[in-house]
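Appendix B. Raw example, untouched.
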Amino acid sequence: MKRLCQVFALCGLLVVAGEALAASERAAARNGAAAKLLEQGKADAAIAEFQNALAIDPTYFPARLNLAFAYERAGKVEDAIAAYQGAIAVQPRNFLAHNNLGVLYDKKGQYDLAIGEFESALAVQPGEPMAAKNLATARKNQATIKERQAQILKAEQDAQAKPDDPRASYNLARIHAAYGNSELALQWLGKAVKQGYKNLDDFKADPAFASLREEREFQLLLLKK
């Protein structure tokens, strides 16, 4: 079976303190302190400081972007997405907000949304290398997932059209295993055995099932010789 290309991780971009942009000095100071905390790996403390900066001056945009990035560093992806969306609502043509939001959508497998954000970033800064690379990667990821889904659908249709054919069930199990769907792979392997699949040595030799070999259910299937 053809091995599909890997889904790539995209690069994010940290927004540093920047100019005051007519914001209060207290908000700028909080933002600067929070940026230092983030550099030290203290994401939760940084989040609190960025929030303090925005409480002092909600118009201080660098803190808004930094807060979104800090959420991401803390693993709070949904909060980061909401923060970037809020930043875009304030500054619809902000390159960094669009690019970094696209990165998060890509990580979640929401490639249509990711592509839209990277296109918006490039509309602001045409030809910008990082966003252009991210857009190309998101499109590649989208194509990979569509091809994967098409392969699974074809194998499912084949298994449904041949309800008594153990080879069809075996092939569907291989595809699910290759794409990390362990539970479904084991289900279809079990069905193949019930349908009369005899050469269980194939289970051990087939590289598609390498990730399943330590699974108890997989080992039990091997005992049904």
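End of appendix B.
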